[in-house]
Write a structure and sequence with these properties.
The protein contains ten helices and ten strands. The protein is of the alpha/beta class. Bound molecules: 5'-O-[(R)-(carboxyoxy)(hydroxy)phosphoryl]adenosine and zinc ion (ZN). The site of 5'-O-[(R)-(carboxyoxy)(hydroxy)phosphoryl]adenosine (KG4) has 20 residues, from helix 5 and helix 6.
């Protein structure tokens, strides 16, 4: 069924791939008018990780009120919406199904064009919300709780995977190390806060380089090294050295990220890099990337758009809809969907 009406209108973005329910509205020129994210952190914290069944149930409860708030905050009525973008994967199937079903219902009810968006493309676009897309090819590093992917981007829609993690995602490593130290979930923000008062060179943790896959990353050795140290320390000493351990762990993750960026810049002769995903919120990472990669243009997602949000999905959708791309209403959700 072809669903086309009012191509030049406002864009509605919907994102429910994991544990955040998010809806955003973009102006016809790509300005973010509203970006509402309802975090489920409190629901999952007791389990020290995301429980898929609970995530789906929470999306069901949150999606309509979040949608209404997004329209109200943008001061836009449903009549002004010209198209819809929704995350169709990769992610948790039960979570994706809620956002996609809701988006299809709106598209069907209002006779609107809809486009299925890859969550990772949303992250790649996120540093360019309210900012022009670069002319030259660049490296995009999506570093989150579920993904650690390094892409060469030649233009919107053309992504070559250069490197990725062979085990844990960087954010997952932050979360697991934080959980081990009793810092709660998600651990990244708390751990990085505790690291502020620690010495990043207090402990020398491993920075893995894979001989046959130089662009790939691995965090399991680092995670085990921190765990070994932690378990060997007496309880009083754990408390005393927590900031130093957090800072040293964080530094090891940052060093690996910078190393892979330097490698891709040199080998692909790139002049720009973009960082996105939850871990790119990390202050020390942001500072270090800008300092160490002098001479290269560094694009960082604004802090509100590093973690999962629907503005990045709406932005990717706007580009695709403006090109005339739409998805048929029977499109599926996908747990795996390489970019
Ligand atoms: O992009 P995101 O919201 O969700 C995924 O698509 O995974 O990223 C969430 C991840 C979590 O693992 C969280 O611990 C991590 O990003 N994170 C951080 C920081 N803020 C969030 N990691 C390190 N430092 C931070 N400041
Ligand atoms: Zn994400």
């Amino acid at each position: 069924m072809a669903m086309v009406r009012n191509q030049s209108g406002y864009i509605l973005g919907i994102e429910t791939s994991c544990d955040d329910t998010a809806v955003a509205v973009l102006s016809p020129t790509g300005r973010v008018l509203s970006s509402i994210v309802s975090s489920q952190d409190r629901v999952h914290a007791a389990y020290r990780g995301i429980v898929p069944e609970l995530a789906s149930r929470q999306h069901i409860e949150s999606i309509v009120p979040i949608f209404e708030t997004a329209l109200t905050d943008a001061a836009v009525s449903l009549d002004q919406i010209g198209g819809i973008g929704v995350t169709a994967g990769p992610g948790l199937i039960g979570s994706l199904a809620v956002g996609v079903s809701f988006a299809k219902a709106v598209a069907l009810g209002r006779w609107l064009p809809i486009v299925a968006i890859n969550h990772l493309e949303g992250h790649v676009v996120s540093p360019f919300l309210n900012r022009p897309w670069p002319e030259a090819p660049f490296a995009a590093f999506v570093i989150s709780g579920g993904h650690t992917h390094l892409y060469r981007v030649d233009r919107f829609g053309s992504y070559q995977t250069i490197g990725q993690t062979v085990d844990d995602a960087a954010g997952e490593a932050f979360d697991k190390v934080a959980a081990m130290m009793g810092l709660g979930f998600p651990g990244g923000p708390v751990l990085s806060k505790r690291a502020e008062t620690g010495n990043p060179s207090a402990f020398s943790f491993p920075r893995a380089r894979l001989r046959d896959h130089r662009f790939h990353l691995s965090f399991s050795g680092l995670k085990s090294a921190v765990a070994r140290l932690w378990e060997e320390l007496p309880e009083a000493e754990q408390k005393h050295r927590l900031a130093d351990i957090a800072a040293s762990f964080q530094q090891a993750v940052i060093d690996v990220i910078i190393d892979r960026l330097e490698l891709v810049i040199a080998e692909h002769r790139l002049t720009a890099v973009a960082l996105a995903g939850g871990v790119s919120c990390n202050h020390r990472l942001r500072q270090t990337v800008s300092q160490k990669l002098a001479g290269v243009t560094v694009y960082l997602a604004d802090s509100g758009y590093c973690t999962d949000n629907a503005a990045m999905i709406a932005a990717a959708a706007q580009i695709r809809l403006n090109r005339g791309e739409t998805s048929p209403l029977d499109f599926a959700v996908r747990s795996r969907w390489p970019l």
